[in-house]
From TrEMBL:
This is Cysteine dioxygenase. Its cofactor is Fe cation. It comes from Ridgeia piscesae. There is a cross-link at residues 104-170 (3'-(S-cysteinyl)-tyrosine (Cys-Tyr)). Pfam families: CDO_I.
Length: 236
């Protein structure tokens, strides 16, 4: 039986970006878009821009911690992508990182993020400090895009009085990436986990007598090994 699915070219060229009135509608349309193997960057950026942030839509993914930003899984698009809400307390930042050859879109939901882009470290000049390409600040409802062929980057909440929530779309999904030392260009591979999934707190992994959580991309904690251990049981 012949498929009635239209081609990716028709889908992205003839269909106007629909009006998106809430986060559920955005997810529904993202799932439609990524039934195609092609990633049309301009279309996805326009789609994310079409949704206007409403805290009622995403408050169940909004979780903050004192010492690190949190990663909260919103949707996996049937395995095609990861849609993740990142919640940044005042002044929190990521380390410089790559994106494992995936496309990375960021839709700002609340507050501000400062993005600083870097060139990949030079293989011919090891031990050099990393070259800064530029930086910019984005605010509510802004959309940005990056992939590894463009640059590396780090992000931070520049405010010391307001929190930030950003929605990150990674296509295809990935669970590890590289973080870089700005002074030397040295990198380490780190594994990422979620603070919550679908609005539910993620359970810690037990490892011997220690409770282990994998914390990554965090400039404040353990980026060299990507692990932090906490003695179990922990006081309440
Ligand atoms: Fe990133």
């Amino acid at each position: 039986m012949a498929s009635t699915k239209i081609s990716a070219e028709e889908y992205f060229s003839e269909k106007n970006v629909p009006a998106i009135s809430n986060l559920d509608e955005l997810i529904k349309e993202l799932r439609n878009v990524f039934e195609y193997d092609e990633v049309n960057v301009d279309y996805v950026k326009a789609l994310l821009s079409s949704y206007k942030s409403n805290p009622e839509d995403w408050k169940k993914y909004s979780n903050f911690e004192t010492h690190r930003y949190t990663r909260n899984l919103v949707d996996t698009g049937n395995g095609k992508y990861n849609l993740i809400a990142l919640c940044w307390s005042e002044g929190q930042a990521s380390s410089i990182h790559s994106h494992s050859d995936s496309h990375c879109f960021v839709k700002m939901l609340d507050g501000q993020l400062k993005e600083t882009r870097y060139a990949w470290p030079s293989e011919s000049e090891p031990e050099n400090s990393m070259q800064k390409l530029g930086s910019g600040v984005c605010g509510k409802d802004d959309v940005t895009y990056i992939n590894d062929s463009q640059a590396l980057h780090c992000m931070e909440n520049p405010s010391h009085s307001d929190t930030t929530v950003s929605l990150h779309l990674y296509i295809p999904p990935f669970s590890s990436c590289k973080t870089f030392d700005e002074r030397t260009g040295h990198s380490v591979s780190v594994t990422m986990t979620f603070w919550s999934k679908y609005g539910e707190r993620t359970k810690f992994t037990m490892c011997g007598q220690h409770m282990v959580s994998v914390w990554t991309l965090d400039t404040n904690l353990s980026t060299q090994v990507g692990l932090r251990t906490t003695t179990w049981p922990r006081g309440s």
